[in-house]
Predict the 3D structure of the following.
Amino acid sequence: MKPARRYSIFLASLLGLLWLAPYVTNASKSDCIVYVATYKSKSAAGIYAGRFDAASGRLSGISFAAETVNPSCLATHPNGRFLYASNNYQGKGAGSVSAFAMDRKTGKLTFLNTIPTRGQDPYFLAVDKTGKAVIAVNYASGSVVLLPIKEDGSLSEVSAFIQRQGSSIDPGLQSGPHPHSLTISADNRFVLVADRGTDQVAVYRLDPLKGSLTPHEPPDVKVKPGSGPRHIDIHPNGKFVYAINELSNSVTAFDFDATKGILTEVQTVPTLPKDFTGRNLPADIHVHPSGMFLYGSNRGHDSIAVFQIDLENGALRFLQCVATQGKSPRAFGIDPTGSYLIAANQTSGNLVVFRIDRKTGGLTPTGQTVDLGTPVCIRFVEAQ
């Protein structure tokens, strides 16, 4: 083996251990509140909270925490005191974000306020790393917005609004822009938006102190036409970005130049085994806290796809697909210690707990299942 290549492998392994260190250290902080967003159904509506102990893998005490209209996504404030929910299906132009104060001892949520997003169906939102702003995407009406956060955790009116333009090759699903999710760069300078309607990952410059969001140059990177990037996540090292493509059953890996804000496609790989021929729509995607593995959900095949991440270049190697023991896993969450994954099966209405093998990334069901309406988002918060 050439010395340069040997050094590169050593450096990648060392970086892997550095990313793994906080993940191992945090293993002792195993007691979490689990918040679950549910769409309105006969058996559930709003936000629920439960307790999760990563030392034992036990999920318990799921109960109603707060009422809000069809929450599709939850995001927590960096100070651990506030939670935000995007509210969908309220009529044309009637999307909104609701703010709550969190009690991390009991999981109780106290309503603060609700602010319109000036668009329809805000499917996803995130809080910037300074805790000054919520950024949300209006899926149906195709816009990206910023809502400033006040000192008491409540929200101010939209201070930045960007109406996206464009379309792609599927006339039924891609006749216009449909931004579906976003992630924020490690240095808090950029917002990356996955747009299912235009087959683009867009890049915006973020200034949370000014409450501004502006298109970057270059403004986006295109994926293969008809891919439909839906959800997006960034590696703990800040250098790799992954988008799961809803319309092409695939994941695209990008190299991210965090200094210049430029994405470069590295690879696109399938989320399904080769022998599957049914209809499938990938949904959620998350990088493991260690940075060593990537997980993506399949609705139709009803599974979690597991990939190994090459720490040198971010490339993916498919490992397995594991059945979620339910229908339509719209979302899933990985606990902060990286020991367990909870799948939220929307159509069958159940949460299923899986143990994560820390060496291989493999998933094994623990036997725990909780029935809960129509779960569509899971967030973990360290309990007090």
The first strand starts at residue 31 and ends at 39.
